[in-house]
Amino acid sequence: MKIDTLFRCATSAVALIYSGAALAQATPPQATDMSTEQAGTDQAAADSTDDGREIIVTGSRIRRNGFDQPTPTTVIGDVELRQGARANIQQVLNDQPQFRATVTPQVSNGNTSTGTAPVDLRGLGINRALTLLNGRRFVGENNLNFVPTGLIQRIDVVTGGASAAWGSGAVAGVVNIILKDDLEGLTVGGQSGVSSRGDGARYGVDASFGTKFAGGNGHFMIGAEYIKDKGIPDRNSRPNLGSAAIVRVNPTSLTDFSTRLTRDVNYGNMSSDGLITTGVLAGQTFNGDGTLRSFRGGTPLGAGPFPGQMIGGADGVGLYDNVAASTPFDRLNVFGRVSYDLGGATIWAEGSYGRSTSNAPFLTDFLVPPLTISATNPFLSAAIRNQLAAAGETSFTYGRVFNDILMLRFNTKRENKEGAIGINGTFGKGFTYRAHYSHGEIHSDERLENSRIEANFDKAIDAVSSGGQIVCAVNADAITTNDDPACRPLNPFGRFNASPGAVDYVTGTQQQKTIEKLDSMGAEVQGDLFSLWAGPVTVVVGAEARWVKTSSSRNADAIAGIFSLPVYVSDLNGGFNVKEAFTEVSLPVINAEGVAKVELNGAARYSDYSNSGGIWSWKVGGTARLFNDILLRVTRSRDIRSPNPDELFSQRNINVGALVDQDSAGRGSVPGYTATPATVTTYSGGNPNLVPEISKGWTVGATFSPSFFRGLSFSVDYYDVNINGAITTLSASNLTLLCSKGNSTACSQIIRNPTTQTVETVFSNSQNIASFSTRGLDIEASYVLPLSKVSSGMKGTVRVRALATYINRFIFDTGLTRVDTAGDVGNATANSVPKWRGTLGVSYQGDVVGFDARLRYVDGGLYNRALTTLVNNKVASRTYVDLGAQFKVMDRFTLFGNVNNVFDAPPPITTAGSPHYDIVGTYFTAGARVKF
User: Fold this and answer.
1) CA–CA distances in Å: residue 658 to residues 450, 678, 681, 685
2) How far apart (Å, rounded) are the C-alpha atoms in residues 692 and 607?
3) Do strands 878-889 and 893-900 pair parallel, antiparallel, or not at all (unpaired)?
4) CA nearest 410: which of 454, 361, 457?
5) Which of 99, 207, 340, 671 is the most exposed place for a label (fewest CB within 10 A)?
6) 394, part of any domain
7) CA distances (Å), origin 336, targets 147, 159, 177, 178, 208
């Protein structure tokens, strides 16, 4: 039986028997310190630990015990944090079924997000999940490379109805990273990993120290972590990752338009050494010494001897052949905290520094056109020039992939610096308060090195012989000599034959420096105002404010626009501030001991943005606990996401050119009107008039923790999220089409001549014109069994936990297109999400040894439902098996090892990689940790 079949059977059994999702309870006394509190969702997280400290999860600001959270919340505990031995917290979260791996070292190859580690909850985009650190915003929230893994106690994932409690950006939910605050002693650890193919090496070290002072009233802790991941440079070392493409099955047929996703699709009209495609030498490619040999081509796809594509071929090369399978990165984190108990209040201060860097090949410049080479080019051998002269040819067409001298390289450094102070305390009869202020900055320096300077390249390619030397033709004109003294002629024939001077002349560096700043402050008070017949009415009131500012600038060459493949096309300078007030109320209405407990919950937040004005977010819901074992919960919420500085303030770009007016109905009779104006001014870039996106969502669910079967918990939650006014961009012509359909927002971006009605100006920048709609189920089940309950002589604890997410629909609507991508899993499909994802984990923790086993299931589906002619559109599901073990030696020393993707399950065929399926293959990690 196949592994994915076993997984389906296992998870189906869990779902049918238990109906849903759950959480493990706190670690029983029999467990060792190798396994601290193992949280699942609400239940374990809201119980008390063995030392009596209460664990509060993030589903509500109101502190509550038991399985009473009104909003579904999953807690990632120490078992999930160690499973897979992941390189950062983002990758830990991406293993969970609610997350989409939108930006990772395996996915973000060839784009400038390399080196960042954001999370994408429910696939709604990295800007629609709010990430918090200890319940507060932090400047590095969109890059979890800045969070030290070794200091994390747990992570709360709230999957709905969170903006009223936590603020803007929580449309998809909240990820709250809770750091340890009670470290004692010194811990040092290290780990190293490598793939089964001998690449992808990674190593890391970490250390943490904590101590009390001032008679126990004060506490100081500090931790540091360094990870170096060397990446996987050879894409073709992995199955199905070569230059695949969608090609016609019968490219010359006039009736068969079927297509196939095919491996090893290469350029048919160029090679790495250079291919001559016209004249007497057509079909010849260069050797390293400048001589010629026959081109070893593959199966041509199209008419003529040298079509744009071919399958295979010993000399074949594709666009992605030189793109890494996984990009390398380094990250360093340091975090420190000091706190002091004043008696009734605790003051604290935190400081952190994070750095992430990446320096790796990016892309080959794929915009080099077929070149026309003079038959007298002096870099050609005399034999070749004579052969061309004998044939009467003055030039030939030449195609080459310059993956030697024009391989772009992305070099980036991002630094995060932040400090925070705060106070937590109590007053009166059970009232608590907390307040904080923080300031943080991220400094980013991005450099795209080896970028082709188009004008210089054209001059350097045009080489001639003058005075016995090879020079640029631009400098050999008898009338205007030395027009460009810096020009150095470039030898394009064969790899690595261009001189260093020529390479320096034709390439340069695009650079962009960015500074992001965040000042944030907040305060809240919580307490029971009075009691009703069913219990106390608990209220939280608070206020928050933050100031956001971003600025970016380019180097002079990027501003001049001299590069053939421009990446940094605009600067940015802007910011905004927001002041907020919020409240949350818990109102008990029924409290029949042992029979029913019903509670209503509501929250509201008013946010006043300096750029767009005031807006409300709110949440109403309720819980009903029946017979102590069953909890029913429902939440209705209105959530918001404010536009970010890039969407608001990125520099406006102007383009003047032709446009096709698709809103021409009824205008043809207007004198002077034309549907194809030639000089329309189109503005792109940021839009300071953007307003927050608005989401309306439902969550309805149930949890069951039977008192007659301690340790068993499960729950199921239905969610339905609809986002209106989502921010996106449309082309100028598509805006006219959308206006013709009655969209007033699109119409407001088009300015017409008042007399002729001809389009004169279009604002094709970011607009609130799109919408998202998604719904599905979150399912979880867990069981915790202390083995002493089986037999008094048995030690240790066994935990079983299953998590699954089912997505029924995922619709993105621009007003022009409405596409449901639930079940689309191809890399080329925007917003693709599998319908099912799940994990099933089993762990054992004893006094000396511990074992983990995990199945990760990713559903198959269609590569892209819009590709109706694709004959191999179906993608099979994948199941990955991960194993881990920990061995305790001499009480303080622990050895651990892990194997991911034990059976080396390959990814499906993709054109550029996949956010859903593992491409690394089997991966081994080993390490050690010692406590002093």
Assistant:
1) 33, 4, 9, 19
2) 10
3) antiparallel
4) 361
5) 671
6) no
7) 12, 30, 15, 14, 9
Give the model confidence (pLDDT) of 488-541 as tens digits.
Answer: 999 999 999 999 999 999 999 999 999 999 999 999 999 999 999 999 999 999
Q: Which two tokens stand for residue 786?
A: 């202390």
- From the number of C-beta atoms within 10 Å of its C-beta (0-12, 13-18, 19+), residue 312 rates as middle
Query: What is the pTM (predicted TM-score) of this model?
Result: 0.89
Around Cβ 70, how many Cβ atoms within 10 Å?
A: 28
pLDDT of residue 479: 54
Q: Which of 836, 806, 811 is nearest to 821 (CA)?
A: 811
Contact 298, 55 (CB under 8 A): no
Q: Backbone dihedral region of 13: left (phi > 0), alpha (psi from -120 to 50 degrees) or beta?
A: alpha
Reduce the DSSP state of residue 145 to 3 states and report it. Answer: helix
Q: Please report, for residues 307, 536, 629, the alpha-carbon distance to residue 531 in angstroms, rounded to integers and kept in the order given.
A: 80, 4, 25
* Confidence band for 17, pLDDT divided at 50, 70 and 90: very low
> 793: how many CB neighbours lie within 10 A of its CB?
7
Residue 556 has what DSSP assignment? H
In a domain, 459, yes or no: no
Residues 832, 828: Cα–Cα separation, whole Å = 8
- What range does the domain containing 39 cover? 20-234+327-352
Q: What integer pLDDT is reported at residue 730 of this predicted model? A: 87
CA 133 – CA 153 distance, rounded (Å): 11
120 contacts 129 by C-beta, under 8 angstroms: yes
Instruction: Give domain status of residue 554, yes or no.
Output: no
| pLDDT confidence bin for 30, thresholds 50/70/90 | very low
Number of separate domains in the chain? 1
Give all strands (DSSP E) within 847-907, no chain letters.
Answer: 849-858, 861-862, 874-875, 878-889, 893-900
Question: Domain containing 230 — which CATH number?
Answer: 2.170.130.10
CA atoms 74, 76, 80, 84: torsion sign: positive
- Kindly give the residue spans of alpha helices, DSSP state H, lying in 561-696: 645-649
Tell me how many helices (H) and strands (E) the chain has.
12, 45
Q: Is 109 part of any domain?
A: yes
pLDDT, one tens digit per residue, over 275-317 is: 999 999 999 999 989 999 999 999 998 888 899 899 999 999 9
Tell me if 577 sits within 8 A of 545, measured CB to CB. yes
**Confidence at residue 39, expressed as pLDDT on a 0 to 100 scale:** 35
DSSP string, 202-249: EEEEEEEEEEEEGGGTEEEEEEEEEEEE--B--GGGSTT-SS-EEEES
Q: What is the pLDDT of residue 690?
A: 93
Give the phi and the psi of residue 110 in degrees, each rounded to 5: 75, 20
| CA distances from residue 909 to 247, 820, 876, 878 in whole angstroms, order as listed | 13, 22, 10, 13
Going by the DSSP 8-state scheme, the letter that residue 868 receives in this structure is T
Burial class (CB in 10 A: 0-12, 13-18, 19+), 250: exposed
- pLDDT-based confidence at residue 184 (cuts at 50, 70, 90): very high
What confidence category does residue 56 fall into, taking pLDDT thresholds of 50, 70 and 90?
low
Query: What token pair was written down for 337?
Result: 């905290």
Find the angle CA(454)-CA(459)-CA(461) to the nearest 5 degrees. Answer: 95
